[in-house]
Amino acid sequence: MKNIASQVRRDFAADSALATGLAGYARREEQINLAEEIGTAFEQKSVLLAEAETGTGKTLAYLVPALRSYEKILISTHTKALQDQLVHRDLPSVQKALGIGRKVALLKGRSNYLCPQRLQRSITSPELESRTQKNMLKVLKWSESTTDGDLSGLDFDVFAKGIGQMVTATADQCLGVKCGEYDVCPLMKARQRAQSADIVVTNHSLLLADAALKSGEYGEILPMFDAYVLDEAHSLPELACQHFGIQLTRLKLIQWLNDMQALLDEMGDEPALKKDVVAAGRDVLDAWLKPGLDELKDAWHGMFDLAESRRERSEDMARIADRAGEILVEIRMVMQPADGFVGWSDGEGENKRYTVAPVETGPVLKQHLWDRPAAFVLLSATLRVSGSFEYARLRLGVDVADDSFHATPFDYSRQSMIYLPRHMPDSRSPQGVEALTDEMETLIRASQGRAFVLFTSWGMLNQVGPELARRLPWHVLIQGESGSRDAILETFRKDTHSVLCGTRSFWEGVDVPGEALSMVIIDKMPFAPPNDPLLKARIQRCEEKGGHGFRDIQLPEAIATLRQGAGRLIRSVDDRGVMALLDSRLYAKAYGREVVRNLPAAPIKDDLSEVRWFFEEQDQ
């Protein structure tokens, strides 16, 4: 077998093709050590848990051994931005520098690809509004020239325009090899490319969806691999709750009803059945608004019986009857979650949503992923809590794994400062929001904009964000008001003195090096809401095993999230900035010292004048 680790060490030598041929390459010992560890994991088919702090260069550290390996490798990320960066920038440049030509394929989830069959069916519908029809015609024109059917190639978001469901197919709606458009289907072509590629780049959601399918009755999305590299691995537990659980919404029922109606329209010879389906559909939607699920179960059972009575008419009808049966099973599971799962509902009326999720994600991930005969490399800048991998091991379910830590090359003591004020009142008190807003305004004026303001809740964002926009002379971008996440980030990067106010989606996966981001403000410790049903179930399970809910779950979870938020600030060796956490409980509570241990190794100040001096010194 090829000794990948030894080859990797040679690739990172000072006179190597990589060092001389890759633009911007800088030798980093921690990066080389990580690359060797990854090469060894590939060779030994072992599991590696690695924290590589910001600036280590973990992307290159796994791309080199992946390219040097002869085996079939999957690289999975959490964010689309990193996925696209790998395929369109990083992999081509590293392959060119090394002179290696391994076959690479990009595979996204099905909602990213055009479904030609649904486009044709939807665009001919006489019920299309003029605005919708205009957008549909744009998609049709684009479809004639696109080479891959990836909807990101459009100059607008089809889901934001309300036509996403008309031009894409869910797994339930997809006809697979029975579809008349199968030979030209962008999704199927992408999957075929993935089957024959040496390296496939995808995302965690698709990987977990595939793992769930492999355990059921349906076909796989992804082939099997010899090695899996999971970047941004800290996000896996939360995603596992979604993919190995259930989400039941009114929209899911409506999609089935619409598909049933469309099928009956195509058949054209079942007027009595169509009338019964319309009536039963009304009963279903009325039952959705009632408390509890008993009436919904009964109403949907009637709908299932109608579909089942015509199962023999066609394969399409059999398929839609199967889907009705699956939804009936989900309703029953929501009413009575299986052992090891917890269920809850949120929202009201038509927006109500029922969720069932595994209480512990470790066993689920182990069963569906880590038990495969393959190498697994799990990477993130934030896998440890207080210097330990124990919490990550528990959440990820990787009992038998090597672990390694690779420190950042950034000099936080010189490049940054941490501001932890002692005087902030409880943000829930009447004076708390006003004091928080005043403090944020003062800090942002000191940095002359150039700030991320990260909130732990939508409620606080909606209270404080508009007030900051009113007070400050710079452009204040507010999540939910100022456009899509990508549009907000693009504006922030271009407008050097702008301010971005956001919630959890901006705490990670955001890279803004340079002057545009010089201040990160976090309103308070990001503890999960104590009334969260899943958190309560996890705490109960933890305490049943003799653990302590706050110490073993709530605090590690909050620290891990805080480390992600703090990591937005320093993204290069030339960056300078201040991270402010406006939560004086760090001085009053016993856990404060533990939190501070997990912050970057920067000087900690509690005086606003120190922040002003930091920026005045920077501007000189």
UniProtKB/TrEMBL annotation:
Belongs to the helicase family. DinG subfamily. One of its GO terms (biological process) is DNA repair. SMART domains: DEXDc, DEXDc2, HELICc2. Keywords: 4Fe-4S, ATP-binding, DNA damage, DNA repair, DNA-binding, Helicase, Hydrolase, Iron, Iron-sulfur, Isomerase, Metal-binding, Nucleotide-binding. It catalyses: ATP + H2O = ADP + phosphate + H(+). Its EC number is 5.6.2.3. The keyword Ubl conjugation does not apply. Gene3D superfamilies: P-loop containing nucleotide triphosphate hydrolases. Its cofactor is [4Fe-4S] cluster. It holds the Pfam family Helicase_C_2. The keyword Magnesium does not apply. GO terms for molecular function: 4 iron, 4 sulfur cluster binding; 5'-3' DNA helicase activity; ATP binding; ATP hydrolysis activity; DNA binding; metal ion binding. The lineage of its organism: Bacteria, Pseudomonadati, Pseudomonadota, Candidatius Mariprofundia, Mariprofundales. This is DNA 5'-3' helicase. It comes from Mariprofundus micogutta. Residues 17-277 form the Helicase ATP-binding domain.
